[in-house]
Amino acid sequence: TLFRSSGMAWRAGGFVVVPLNEYTVGLKIGVAYDQSIAKNSGYVCRDYSDCVNAKVRFSQSKIDIPLLFSFKGPRSSFSFDIGTELDVPIKDEFRVDLEGSGVSKLDMIDKENREMLDWNIVFGFALKANQYVGMDFRFNMGLSDMYDVSQNSNLKMFKLDDLSSA
């Protein structure tokens, strides 16, 4: 399978910080909307002699709910965050256009190919511009196997058991 990939992802949300002591430790609780789209095109071979041109589009929307501990120095505008995040899928669609076979769509949530909740470990840092505005930089590591495509041979052909939108 040889594919050229392109895509776009964005995330928007907010959080509140609940101080656990006067200066250095806080609890960040938030919610974010996450949207990603990935497009691929290339040749897929069902066996050694049957190769076709394929266009693939994967789109995903989800709600992310992070719960983080935030650590900082008493007078610092820099903080370090670590915690967990729960992801709830809203839309998870895989669309394939195989040359000569037409377009097929698969809703990964309805077909029960996807877990209904995903867990991540999150770590990162934040910079505060003032008391109300700042920027977070976060890195997520998934703990869940998002997809189970063992029952669907068409999806196995695209190696979706390793699929991730991040």
Structural class: mainly beta
Backbone CA Rg: 20 Å
How far is the first residue's CA from the last residue's CA?
A: 21 Å
Percent range of helical residues: under 10%
Shape: elongated
Q: Helix and strand succession?
A: EEEEEEEH
Estimated share of beta-strand residues: over 45%
Oligomer: single chain
The beta-strand count equals 7
What report would you give on this structure?
With 166 residues, the chain is mostly beta strands. It is built from one helix and seven strands; from the N terminus they run E-E-E-E-E-E-E-H. Strands 1, 2, 3, 4, 5, 6 and 7 form a seven-stranded antiparallel β-sheet that branches. Strand 2 and strand 3 form a beta hairpin. It is elongated, with a radius of gyration of 20 Å. The two termini are 21 Å apart. The model has no long low-confidence stretch (mean pLDDT 80).
TL;DR of this structure?
The protein has 1 helix and 7 strands, in the order βββββββα. The protein is mainly beta and 166 residues long.
Helix and strand topology:
Layout: E1 2-19, E2 25-45, E3 51-72, E4 78-98, E5 102-107, E6 118-128, E7 134-142, H1 153-156
Antiparallel strand pairs: 1-2, 2-3, 3-4, 4-5, 4-6, 6-7
List the main descriptive attributes of the protein structure presented here.
166 residues, mainly beta, seven-stranded antiparallel beta sheet, 7 strands, 2% helix
